[in-house]
Write a structure and sequence with these properties.
- The chain is an alpha/beta fold and 282 residues long.
- The chain is built from nine helices and seven strands.
- 35% of the residues lie in helices and 13% in strands.
- A seven-stranded mixed β-sheet has the order 3-2-1-4-6-5-7, sandwiched between helices.
- Helix 3 links the parallel strand 2 and strand 3.
- The two termini are 14 Å apart.
């Protein structure tokens, strides 16, 4: 309701209408929608877990078990991006056992962004989230990530590694690079994120599937951030835990990807295919 309407009715700006308390339950026990909120009813919550996989034979089964342990309705969509280390055999077994709902194979390695796009196109959930297969991010953080989406405060939630959550101490210059890329992204999007490059981005499913995404490798992070900003999405940030890998343990992103991210930030914010679109809310 506008400030003018509030004044005309004798209520202060933002004050709820008489007899409708913000926390009053509906007949099904779910809280009424507050002004500006679009909650997801519990019965409608279904999480699409997008798992891009490339040569993760030693960790994929464990991360799938961790994902399945989170008590939320979900579908697990694994996209093998041309693995050559035996990962595909593990995924085939997990799918046959019903521990993964669908496995999609790329004939050759196309990059993380391409794998995420493939999984996103196959998703059906009311919320989507990317889950790396390398054990750096813990699905136990999902309740914190999902809360602003479920209660209707957000259209997308970023899990920040720099908001005080427990984390493994690793590379100083890697963290400096992340913060620099986040700063440059923020300057272009006018957001105040602390961790644009985070893997953990939970997004309302209908919104995520409407975004125009093209990046194949690690350009996915600056691109999806730019597209969310261009769509006018309400974005929240929450602290998460982080257990980063060393390069000896299989970490794949390097300084060349950091340089490429500079170009991605510039081009994805210069070109706006979302122009004229806006997040639709009931």
């Amino acid at each position: 309701m506008s400030d003018r309407s509030d004044a005309a009715s004798g209520r202060a700006a933002g004050e709820p209408a008489p007899g409708i308390a913000p926390s009053s339950p509906t007949v099904d026990g779910f809280p009424r929608r507050l002004h500006g909120r679009t909650p997801i009813p519990p019965a409608a919550l279904r999480l699409s877990v997008l798992v891009p996989v490339y040569n993760e034979r030693d960790t994929i089964e464990l991360i799938v078990d961790q994902v399945n342990a989170v008590p939320v309705p979900k579908e697990i969509l694994c996209v093998d991006d041309g693995s050559t280390d035996g990962t595909r055999a593990v995924l085939a077994r997990l799918e046959a056992e019903g521990r993964v709902h669908r496995v999609i194979l790329h004939a050759q390695n196309r990059g993380k962004g391409a794998a995420i796009r493939t999984a996103l196109a196959a998703s059906t959930g009311s919320v989507v989230i990317v889950q790396d297969a390398d054990l750096e991010y813990d699905p136990a953080d999902w309740p914190t990530l999902l809360a602003p989406l479920v209660d209707g405060r957000a259209d997308a939630v970023f899990g920040s590694r720099f908001l005080g959550g427990p984390h493994r101490v690793l590379y100083f210059w890697h963290s400096v690079g992340n913060k620099l890329l986040t700063l440059l992204s923020n300057m272009c999007t006018d957001l105040n994120l602390t961790d644009m490059e985070t893997c953990y981005k939970a997004i309302r499913g209908d919104l995520a599937r409407s975004l125009v995404l093209t990046a194949d490798r690690f350009g996915f992070e600056p691109e999806v951030t730019a597209r969310l900003a261009q769509a006018g999405a309400r974005i929240y940030e929450v602290p998460i835990t982080y257990s980063g890998r060393t390069y000896a343990e299989g970490k794949k992103i390097g300084w060349k990807d950091g340089l490429a991210a500079l170009w991605h930030i510039a081009r994805f914010n210069a070109v706006n295919p979302m122009r004229g679109s806006h997040v639709a809310r009931p």
